[in-house]
Automatic annotation (TrEMBL):
Protein name: SNG1 family protein
Membrane topology: Multi-pass membrane protein
UniProt keyword annotations, A-Z: Cell membrane, Membrane, Transmembrane, Transmembrane helix
Lineage: Bacteria, Bacillati, Actinomycetota, Actinomycetes, Kitasatosporales
Compartment(s) where it occurs, according to its Swiss-Prot or TrEMBL record: Cell membrane
Residues that span the membrane, as ranges: 26-49, 218-236, 274-297, 304-323, 329-347, 394-415
Amino acid sequence: MTAAGSGQQQPPSARALAVARHGRLWIVPTVLSSLVALFLSLLYMGGIVDPNDSLRRLPIALVDSDQGPPLPGQQQPLGAQLSRAVVTSTPSTAVEWRRLSQAQMQDQLASARIYGALVIPAGFTTSVGALTTPRATARPTLTVLTNPGLGSLGSSLASQISQTAAHQSSLVIGRQLSAQASAKGAEATLRALLADPVTVTVRPGHPIGRHSGLGLTAFYYTLLLVLAAFVGGNIINNGVDAGLGYTDNEIGPWHSRRPTVPISRTQTLLLKMIMSAAIAVLTTSLTMVATIAVLGMDASHIPLLWIFSYCASLAVGLGVQAINAAFGGIGQIVSMFVFVALALPSSGATVPLQAVPGFYRFLALFEPFRQVAGGVRAVLYFDARADAGLSRGWTMIAIGFALALAFGFAMTTYYDRKGLRRMVFTEAG
């Protein structure tokens, strides 16, 4: 290893300003940097600019436990009337109201299939009817349940929609009751109460721990896994190339060049993948130690979380090595878009997929971040239920494994058979 200025006679060097006048030197860095800035801006901001306008069939449960009997002169209990008013008061393209029983609602909250619920309690009709009698003790209540494990924004959207629908439905029922009360000559105070007879309470339907970042720890934990695998994969790629003598190794002013090792592209890729698999054991363990042991993140099923995290990190690491082997110098940019730029806005972990444009919902079908985040969320918040996203996470990790191996070794084998060997460097005499 040598350092510049170590006493040896240095050859004349070009001046930076003189070299900068050559236009061709600017073309590739300028074009690539501009494209990265443009597409990153469009991708990231395009997914979050207006979730309300992008909302498509957000699943919310509607539970009607009111069995009546109907009020005098009416055909149905008020619960049925309110349910109908709730469904008609919201666009069908924006919300998917699922009419469920109490047990079905609890199951879908616990399996991450609904973002919240609006519950009409038993005896709702009786409690509304009691407002016109001395037996009234409190205003009838509707309950809005949230599902914070699906993220604070998704849970908040479901809560706002449910509360708005409940209030509008209360006004519809209130107009009917007020008209009846006016016909009977009721007092003005009672008519005002009947105009909006229902109060709404909000509470978590599937609570999560206090140290869960309001449902965001799954996203950030997944981000740590993906970034560690992505950055680590590129560090391994560059380190192996330097160790085998195919690139220079520079640390500060120190520079070294190892003798070139005659090795095929396929064997080089195999070496990098073996190192990725080994180093991922350490990076996964350190990520869990930092987040759970040091910072106190709420987590259960620790052995399962470690195994899932390791396999997810390894799948990303193998993908990075395959892309770098196939695309060479621009491989890091390609893998950055595959595993980070396209992945974050389509993850569904911060903004629900139902609240992003269709392009991102399409990406979510195969982007690895989405699959890993769903599995991590199932382990952290939903008791590691397979139907809460864990089964899909395992399936997509296995597919990612297979694709990385098949693509990487197919490309390097092709290059080797075509005689497209890497450039061999020799020491200057």
